[in-house]
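ok so dumb question maybe but i'm new to this and my supervisor (M.) told me to 'just get the structure for Zinc-type alcohol dehydrogenase-like protein' and walked off. so i did the thing. is this what she meant?? sequence i used:
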Amino acid sequence: MKAIVHGDTTLPASDPRALQDAVLPDPTPEAHDLLVEVRAVSVNPVDTKVRQGLVQRESKVLGWDVSGVVRAVGSAVSRFAVGDEVYYAGELFRPGCNSELHLVDEHLAGHKPKSLDHAQAAALPLTAITAWELLFDRLGATEGGGAGQQLLVMGAAGGVGSVLVQLARQLTELTVIGTASRQETQDWVRQLGAHHVIDHHQPLRPQLEALGLDGVTLVASLTHTDEHFTQLVDVLRPQGRLGVIDDPAQLDVVPMKAKSLSLHWELMFTRSLFQTPDKVRQHEILERVAGLIDQGTLKTTLGEHLGRIDAANLRRAHAQLESHQARGKLVLEGF
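this is what came out, is it supposed to look like this??
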C-alpha cells in the first residue's frame, strides 16, 4: 500500500526528507480491528510533534484523523460490517493513517455522518472527541446546564476550539466567549456560535469587563497556556475550572489556591493508551456527534482542502499548522 513516512531526524516541514512517499505491506486486522480504506485524513498538532521528535513512537507513519470505508473486519468485531463508512482518530502508538489502508479498534470508531463527504468528516474525529471530553468529562459542563455561567475558549478558531464553541453553544446554556486575533478568525468563531469574541493578544480582563463580565466560570485553554496562565487565574471566578490540552513548558499552579481553582488536563488518547474499561466511550461520542451533524446541530470544521494525500501536501499542512495561522482543520483526500 502507499504511505507517507517521516524521517529519522528532526527536520523542518519544508525539507523533502521530513515526510516521504513510500510503499509498505498491507496490514492484517486482529480480533477487534477494522481494516479501513482511507479516503481522507486531516492533520493535527500531534502530527507535527511526532515529526519533530517531541513525542517518541516506533511507527514512521503519522496521522490520527480518518474517514474511510471498512474493507475487512477482525473475528470479534460486532459494531461494523464490510462496506460501512467510518470516521475516527485511532491510537497514538499504532501506525498512523497516512496510508491507503489502516487498522483501528472498533471501540474507537464511529459511523461517518451521512450528510458529510469524506473530506468533511475527516476534519472532525480527534477534535470532536477532545472537545467533548474537555467540556463534559473534564470541565464538568452538563447538557442543558450552565445558565448564568461563562466559558472562555482560548484559541477558539483552531481545530478543537471550532468544535468546542459549537458544542457549548448548542448543547449548554453557557455564555461562550472565544478568543481570536485576526478578523478572519474572529469572524469564523462568531459563525460557529460564540456569544462574544475577544483578542488573546490583548489583556483579557478589560475586554471581559467591556462585555459586562467581571470573570468567567470555566476556561478551556487550547494553546499557549503558559503565556496566558496568570491572566487566566485572574479572570476565573472563585471555584472555577481550568481545562488544558497543550504542553506548557512550565506551570506554577500555586496561584490557583486562593480561589480554590481546579486544573483539568485532557488528552483524547488516554482511553486507548491505558485501555480503560470505558474506551468504547469514544465510539459513543463519535456516534452522537454524527447524529448532531446529520440533524444540522453541528457542522464540519474543515478549514482548507489541501489536495491529495501525499508527502508534498502533508509537508504543506505541517508547515501551515506550525505557523499557527490555520483556521479550522486542514484536510487531504485520496491517493
